[in-house]
Specification:
The complex is a heterodimer of chains A (71) and B (133). Chain A has two helices and no strands. Chain A is mainly α and 71 residues long. Chain B has one domain. Chain B has four helices and four strands, in the order ααββααββ. Chain B is globular and about 35 Å long. The chains are: A mainly alpha (71), B alpha+beta (133).
Chain lengths: 71, 133
């Protein structure tokens, strides 16, 4: 008996929650997200960024000058 | 690019110490290019790649292959030392050097475009990666 009562209460609580969620989803129904029609591009060369190249440029020039026999 | 790309890995570490010693022994570093290297460059057999290493513009002879491998190992050692002192990766430093080395090619010498094609440098600016300064 006790088990059944608890079960019934749980069911009732679940039902209430479901009702609240349904209400919320009905309110939020106007927010729509469309999938982009263009494919998403991921740049795989992010490990060499232009700002890094600019920062290293002076040191690279120096290295080339100082080791001219291998460059 | 894929056909002629040289992949410097294993042997490079062994050469780092050697090149560091050479760099210390020749601090003025006004050393000239090896005549065989200068000749292969001038003949357009080898050229500069965007990654900072030398590559083969035409199928290499065993002697040219060995020459390029040796130079690329020395280059990688030099890039590794500079990468450490500048807090960058070897790849980043090598790439930045590649930008400069392609810019420095003389008319008649070969270089590789970002797309992987080998081109002969003429009077106009070379075709380089958009990230090059």
């Amino acid at each position: 008996m006790i088990m059944t009562k608890t079960g019934a209460r749980r069911l009732a609580t679940g039902g209430r929650c479901l009702a609240v969620m349904t209400g919320m989803s009905a309110l939020a129904g106007c927010v729509q997200i469309d999938t982009p029609d263009k494919p998403i591009e991921i740049n795989l060369n992010i490990n060499i960024r232009q700002e890094v190249v600019y920062r290293l440029d002076g040191d690279a020039k120096k290295l080339i000058e100082q080791n001219s026999e291998i460059f | 690019m894929r056909m002629t790309k040289w992949n410097p890995t294993g042997l490079a570490l062994a050469a780092i110490a050697t090149t560091a010693a050479v760099a210390l022994a020749v601090p003025s570093a006004m050393a000239q290019r090896d005549p065989a290297y200068a000749a292969a460059r001038a003949a357009g057999q080898i050229g500069e790649q965007p990654d900072g290493y030398l590559g083969f513009a035409t199928a290499p002879t065993p002697a040219i292959r060995a020459l390029v491998q040796d130079l690329n190992i020395k280059r990688k050692a030099a890039y590794t030392a500079s990468a450490q002192s500048t807090g960058s990766t070897v790849e980043q430093f090598a790439f930045t050097s590649g930008c400069n080395l392609i810019a420095k090619t003389k008319p008649g010498e070969k270089y590789q475009t970002p797309g992987g094609a080998w081109k002969t440098r003429d009077g106009s600016a070379p075709e380089r990666d958009a990230r090059c300064p």
